[in-house]
Amino acid sequence: MSLSRLDVFTLSHNAAKWPLPCRVLLGCALAVLVLLVGEVVYLGPSRERLQGVEARGHVLQQQLAEKTGLAATLEVRTERLRAMENKLAGLLRQLPAESEVPALLEDVARLAVANGIWVEGLTVLEEEPRQLYTGQPMQVGATGAYHDLAAFVSALGGLQRVVTVQDVTLRPEGALLRLEMLAKTYRGTTPSDKVRQALESGPRFVYDPTALRDPFQSPTLQVARAPGRPALSPDLTRPRGMLEGMTIDQFEMVGTLSNDMQAFALLRVGSRVHRLAVGDYLGPDHGQVTAIQDGYVELVELFPDEQGAWLERPRTLMLNVNS
After folding, report:
1. Which long-range contacts (CB under 8 A, 24 or more apart) does 29-32 make?
2. pLDDT of res. 8
């Protein structure tokens, strides 16, 4: 009988007459065939779907654990967010609603004189509007000794208004250093009729050159720094007044007097009150009164440094409101 005439019914009918081993082989072959068909058609896709579901279940368990941890700290995070929002609002209220560039320029000039440096260039650049504030950058160029320049930059950060310093460069210029930096002040975008909140005082960094060396000089050339600005020597032949025999700390400003021509400061030493005008001398360091205001007196003192040159430094006597 040829294969073309093979009758499956006849084969299955005659299989009952096959020997036992043949029937066992035939049954095993049929079982294997059924398993292969079931694996390909049903079990394989189902197993892949099961693996995918298990993987998604594992991911969901991880997400659930993360969400549970976040939910447990939700109140704490909410309080932190509120504190940050309140702090931001407070900082924005501390910013002036109008530009204070003129006052800042006066502060820069005052700090430069106090630290003995020369501000040779100060350029006000265009404002930089932001969503919550407006920045006002200024390019500053100054010349002075290393420690004087460092003290000047430190003093800028201690002003009542918010001032930041960036892009600082130093380069030698003769015996001194040239400082170039970008200073920024800020103002808020709130309407000007709102009351500005007072700036909260906090710990500030103050540059202290004690035990610090100038990195731009050889260690063998280091000398103790005397804070002050180079000045001409005073007239040592000038007769000294009575008030020049007392230290500045002994004087106390108790008021002012003025007429149409001149203003006078009233300074008390012990039980006596002395009247001084602009140009009068005070204290042992050739201190000379340079300005008299209602609340304070400004003067400039002269003193020699360790190298024989003369330096000048400003001093201020504040009005004692309890006097």
Report:
1. none
2. 54
Structure tokens at 97: 């609603």
Structure tokens, 235: 């007239």
Each residue of 78-123: pLDDT tens digit?
Answer: 888 888 888 777 666 666 666 677 777 878 887 887 777 888 888 8
Measure CA 211 to chain center.
26
pTM over 0.85: no
Worst-scoring range by mean pLDDT, 1-10, 149-158, 170-179?
A: 1-10
**Beta carbons within 10 angstroms of residue 209's beta carbon:** 16
Phi, psi values for residue 56, rounded to 5°: -65, -35
Pair 145, 177: CB distance under 8 Å: yes
Section 5-18 average pLDDT = 59
User: For residue 110, which of 302, 319, 290 has the smallest C-alpha distance?
Assistant: 290
Provide the token pair at 190.
């709130």
If residue 101 lies in a helix (H) or strand (E), which one and from where to where? helix 101-114
Distance CA 145, CA 306 (A): 15
Q: In whole angstroms, how far apart are CA 186 and each of 17, 180, 247?
A: 105, 20, 41
Q: How many CB atoms lie within 10 A of CB 18?
A: 13
